[in-house]
Amino acid sequence: MTDKNIIESEASQPSPLGQTSFQDLAYRFKERFSWKNTFAALKYPNYKLWFMGQIISLFGTWMQTTAEGFLIFELTHSPVYLGYVGFATGIPAWLFMFYGGVVADRLPRRSVIIATQSTMMLLALTLAVLTFTHTVQAWHIIALAFGLGIANAFDAPARQSFLLELVDKDDLVNAIALNSTMFNSARAIGPAVAGVVYALFGPAWCFTLNGLSFIGVISALTKMKFKSTISLEKTKSVFADVKEGLNYALTQPMIRTLIGLVAVINLFGISFVTLIPAWAVTVLHGDATTNGIMQSARGIGALATALFIATIGSSKYTYRLLSIGIFSFPLVLLFFASVKWLPASLLALVGTGSAIILIFNLSNAIIQSLVNDTLRGRVMSVYTFTSFGFMPIGALIIGVLANNLGEPLAVTICTIITLIFSVLAWLYINKIEKTSVVRNITD
Asked: Which of these, 49, 86, 261, 244, lies nearest to 162 by C-alpha position?
């Protein structure tokens, strides 16, 4: 979909970005609410295979992530090693993510994903063998986490840009929302299952089950059938391709603004999640159970909103729903920072989880609808980099602030920064939309 096509669909609406008719949205949701609409992307055989394979793999991933943290803490009795694992997983994004975008544009994306998923499977099974044989050490876990980070740097751009090979553009928003549904369902259930398996059978079985879970997605990928494959030009150097992708992403006003918005939210907004365990104890005077309830509340909000977007999502409402997310996230987060009552905190966490999905899912859909397929992998590598590259830095920033100023003030400072940038981004997006509508009418 070109810029002009999107503007035409938006121009037919009586109000620009931000002037949202909530009654209209409510009527639209009531009109379209059915399981058929919610799971529209599943009508595509290839996406159905992808959905089934991915949901199995994501459960395994969350099992390993949970068990890995427990294991390294048991080995070292030092919380700093949890930071080392996170850093080892995240730092490859700075080294390889943009090159991963080039690979996603040069090679068949299905082949890239099969290779990266197979690598992740081998890493998980290696950790399982080390744990079964009681030879596992902390440095093994960190090294394997670094290897997983490298695989992710090539896997994420390919996966993000692969969706439009599985569904038509009209169902892209629905497909992205269903992907979030998969992720948040696994995030809600996977860690709980990991806790039970870890307690009954040991961490090695968590890693084994994760390794085996990759068989599902790899098998699904091999079964997919495509009418034709796109032949991509390879006349430029890898560096030139990286430069071309970065230049495109940073010179297109709408794409640049959305990527900047997502980057700031990953750096200053979503970083509050790092403090939830400490928040449960020091602010709410709770325990590990409180921490688990808080994590689940955020996941419930995200899952519910992902299903909502899947049901009502269309180009007609994309920008309007995005504007709701842009404003509601920092405002709800400020409310969270100011309350010390568990029910109110849980309500705020449901709201933050919901708003984040609105921002991330719809920004993803808009960017993918604007970018040309020959640049899709590279542009999505820039988008994905804002998560893999900025979230670890954001966690470090808010951790230092919390250590010196306390958790509530640390969250408040980061949220105010997020709010200021969100308002500026919304104003700029609105300006782009109005300018584009006027230009389209005069043309």
From this structure: 49
User: Please, what's the b/e burial string for 422-432 (b: 16 or more CB within 10 A of its CB; e: otherwise)?
Assistant: beebbebbbeb
Which pLDDT tens digit goes with each residue over 125-150?
999 999 999 999 999 999 999 999 99
The DSSP secondary-structure symbol of 78 reads -
Residues 254 and 387 in one domain: yes
- Is 228 within 8 Å of 64 (Cβ atoms)? no
Domain that holds residue 84: 44-168+183-224
Alpha helices in 78-202 (DSSP H): 80-106, 109-132, 138-162, 172-201
Quick one: pLDDT at residue 439? Answer: 44
Q: Are 272 and 333 in contact (CB under 8 A)?
A: yes
Same domain? For 306 and 355 the reply is yes
Task: Identify the three-state secondary structure at position 171.
Answer: helix
138 and 190 inside one domain: yes
Cα gap 335→329, rounded to integer Å: 10
The answer to whether residue 322 sits within a structural domain is yes
What CATH number is attached to the domain comprising 71?
A: 1.20.1250.20
